[in-house]
């Protein structure tokens, strides 16, 4: 908790950036929510590692974010690759303070039509990948306390037709998040699961446009992340549900 108290004290009349002397690791950060979160953390002074399966895209993202940001190609379905990426982050920045678990995919079909390969891709990325990432980061986070964010979804408690793999992965991620909170709080590691509804991202092959103005924007979730990091050390919003304030009005 000492680390988190220092973090809060920085903003009790101090002008020192929130992330001064700290670092963050963000998965699935070549675009959308992950990129917005990484950008917000970098703006707050964090040194950041951003990861994605696509090497070209993550290099572009890191270049866009600028000095103090590392781009690493990493498939979260590969535990050895995740461990290497985290170890390299710790070696480069001397520790790890914030972990934002964001990498995810969606494959949607009637359970009868969903292929085994699609099921495995979603579960391996959204649930197993989250576990591998958290597992790799724990030793570094334990060094002085830290914060883990898991990017879940309202689909983690609201099933929908055609969502068998995605729903299962997010229901599982919510359960994992709740358990690691219990397991790790004695090490002064906070855990918050963020559960958004409709977000204007490229998820599922969607291309954001003006028609998405009613949706949650990636920068909104980035701002939420920074706000949570500013919370007093004694207080933990362990689950945050986020919805568009106004529904889509069609017709």
From TrEMBL:
Residues 1-21 are annotated as: Disordered. Residues 22-188 form the Ketoreductase domain. It comes from the Bacteria. Residues 1-13 have a biased composition (Basic and acidic residues). GO terms for molecular function: oxidoreductase activity. It holds the Pfam family adh_short. The keyword Oxidoreductase applies. This is NADP-dependent 3-hydroxy acid dehydrogenase YdfG. Belongs to the short-chain dehydrogenases/reductases (SDR) family. Keywords: Oxidoreductase.
């Amino acid at each position: 908790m000492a680390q988190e108290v220092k973090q809060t004290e920085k903003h009790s009349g101090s002008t020192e950036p929130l992330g001064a002397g700290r670092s963050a690791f963000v998965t699935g950060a070549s675009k959308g929510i992950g990129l917005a979160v990484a950008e917000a953390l970098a703006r707050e002074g964090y040194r950041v590692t951003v990861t994605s399966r696509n090497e070209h895209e993550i290099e572009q993202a890191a270049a866009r974010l600028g000095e103090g940001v590392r781009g690493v190609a990493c498939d979260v379905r590969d535990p050895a690759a995740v461990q290497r990426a985290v170890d390299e982050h710790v070696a480069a920045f001397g520790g790890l303070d914030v972990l934002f678990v964001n990498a995810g995919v969606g494959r949607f079909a009637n359970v009868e039509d969903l292929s085994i390969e699609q099921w495995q891709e979603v579960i391996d990325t959204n649930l197993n990948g989250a576990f591998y990432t958290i597992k790799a980061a724990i030793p570094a986070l334990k060094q002085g306390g830290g914060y883990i964010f898991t990017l879940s979804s309202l689909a983690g408690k609201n099933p929908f037709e055609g969502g068998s793999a995605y729903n299962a992965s997010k229901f599982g991620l919510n359960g994992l998040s709740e358990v690691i909170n219990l397991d790790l709080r004695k090490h002064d590691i906070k855990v918050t699961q963020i559960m958004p509804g409709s977000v204007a991202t490229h998820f599922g092959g969607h291309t954001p446009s003006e028609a998405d103005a009613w949706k949650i924007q990636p920068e909104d979730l980035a701002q939420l992340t920074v706000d949570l990091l500013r919370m007093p050390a004694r207080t933990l919003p362990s689950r945050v549900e986020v919805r568009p304030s106004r529904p889509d009005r069609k017709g």
